[in-house]
Q: What sequence folds into this?
């Protein structure tokens, strides 16, 4: 009898070995051709082999992770659900329990990496649809845990899969969006870039590592405010674009992010004329590649290029009205005629600022008047939350525009009827805020005009005029609250391009 059982067992095992071999061959063809017929064959054959390799079969661990890998690829091409994701995870978990801890073939590292990818995908799906995939935080934590385990098993720098583990762990850590995890990600990605540079053939991994490094620097700057992170972001994105020469729309997001990074750098460290010129060139190239089919990206390209042109005008001693006119044009093109969430206060406030400076420095022209500046500023005020520092800036802008109109014409015109009282605008500004002195001084002037309507003193007139034309403050509307505006824009992440846009590239499979 034992011999009969052995004969039957060997017969079954021969059949499952044949199925497994067919699955491996089909998967190899799928990876080469990306034809779905081969993926379907891989799933069928690996599942058949797994069904035959019951508990205790020496080939069961290998069948588990091969089946999970093929099944997950099929799920991602179709529809990922909690049910099929649970099956894939259960296969990987069982494989880890059965695989030996000392694994010279590297199977445990592969399983940890792939399991980390599954949890990361579930995390992304949870961000899009939290009702269908509710465990957003735990899924991200499990992704990080598995990628860390994979990295520990790839401890040797010479290991060909170490860059993949470094990049995947870093991409997951970036999503935690805190300074400590971002710092770890920057360290890991720095090593990944070094290792990828050694292998000239690993271009895709190098581009992904550099883009992720730029994103990590951008995130850490958001938390810590260290300009060195902006420098790191700019350096990484320049290298990305060097690698993407001649790749058309593949350059768009890195171009936009580099334009934004250069603009931020020039705002933090003025007198960087070459960087500002580069920002304009990069932004113009991004605009040529952008179109309205991707509404969010196109909006950010227009807004960022307009901001760069406006900054170049305010920082350069040799003023160019062309920069101002182009900035106004791009701000206007960025306006959504039917916004879902209402008018964007950052955009409308910036447009009002550019028009105001243009009117003050070069006079009004058709379509660009103080009335237009006032109208856009009022629209920004109505759409801006009152607890946002930008709200205070906008109210100050309205007073500045009104004073300019009164000074230019000697008449109030139609602006005064909509000017809000300045009394409730100063209190929200903390006394230790660096813009507090500018705001309170401006409101003394505004309050005098609102209430006195009498002969304004020369000293007060000079104060308003000097502030509005000062090269260091770049006009009363934009500059007296430039830092306030920047902080507000930083919080308007999804609408103002102050955070780097992600390329949404998936982590790397092993």
A:
């Amino acid at each position: 009898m034992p011999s009969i059982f052995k004969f039957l067992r060997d017969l079954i095992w021969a059949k499952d070995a044949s199925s497994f071999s067919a699955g491996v061959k089909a998967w190899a063809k799928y990876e080469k051709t990306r034809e779905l017929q081969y993926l379907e064959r891989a799933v069928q054959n690996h599942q058949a082999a797994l069904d035959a390799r019951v508990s205790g079969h020496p080939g069961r661990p290998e069948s588990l992770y091969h089946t999970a890998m093929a099944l997950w690829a099929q799920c991602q091409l179709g529809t990922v659900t909690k049910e099929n994701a649970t099956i894939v995870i259960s296969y990987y978990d069982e494989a880890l329990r059965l695989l030996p801890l000392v694994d010279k073939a590297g199977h445990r590292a592969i399983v940890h990496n792939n399991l980390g990818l599954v949890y990361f995908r579930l995390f992304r799906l949870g961000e899009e649809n939290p009702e269908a995939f509710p465990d957003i935080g735990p899924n991200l934590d499990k992704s990080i845990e598995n990628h860390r385990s994979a990295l520990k098993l790839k401890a040797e720098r010479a290991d060909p899969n170490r860059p993949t583990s470094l990049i995947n762990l870093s991409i997951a850590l970036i999503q935690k969006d805190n300074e400590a995890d971002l710092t770890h990600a920057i360290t890991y990605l720095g090593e990944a870039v070094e290792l990828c540079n050694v292998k000239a053939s690993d271009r895709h991994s190098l581009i992904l590592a550099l883009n992720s490094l730029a994103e990590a620097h951008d995130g850490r700057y958001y938390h810590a405010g260290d300009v060195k992170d902006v420098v790191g972001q700019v350096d990484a994105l320049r290298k990305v674009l060097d690698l993407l020469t001649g790749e058309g729309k593949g350059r768009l997001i890195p171009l936009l992010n580099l334009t934004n990074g250069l603009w931020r750098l020039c705002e933090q460290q003025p007198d960087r004329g070459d960087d500002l010129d580069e920002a304009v060139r990069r932004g113009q190239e991004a605009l040529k590649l952008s179109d309205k089919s991707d509404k969010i990206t196109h909006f950010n390209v227009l807004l960022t290029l307009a901001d760069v042109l406006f900054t170049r005008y305010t920082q350069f001693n040799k003023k160019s009205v062309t920069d101002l006119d182009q900035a106004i044009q791009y701000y206007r093109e960025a306006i959504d005629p039917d916004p879902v969430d209402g008018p964007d206060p950052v955009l409308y406030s910036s447009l009002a600022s550019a028009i105001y400076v243009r009117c003050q420095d070069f006079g009004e022209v058709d379509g660009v008047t103080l009335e237009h500046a006032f109208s856009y500023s009022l629209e920004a005020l109505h759409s801006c939350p009152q607890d946002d520092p930008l709200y205070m800036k906008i109210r100050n802008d309205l007073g500045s525009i009104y004073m300019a109109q009164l000074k230019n014409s000697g008449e109030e015109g139609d602006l005064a009827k909509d000017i809000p009282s300045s009394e409730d605008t100063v209190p929200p500004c903390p006394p230790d805020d660096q813009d507090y002195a500018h705001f309170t001084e401006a409101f003394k002037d505004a309050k005098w005009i609102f209430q006195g309507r009498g002969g304004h003193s020369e000293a007060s007139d000079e104060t308003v005029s000097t502030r509005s034309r000062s090269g260091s403050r770049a006009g009363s509307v934009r500059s007296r609250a430039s830092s306030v505006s920047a902080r507000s824009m930083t919080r308007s992440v999804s609408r103002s391009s102050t955070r780097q846009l992600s390329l949404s590239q998936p982590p790397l499979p092993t």
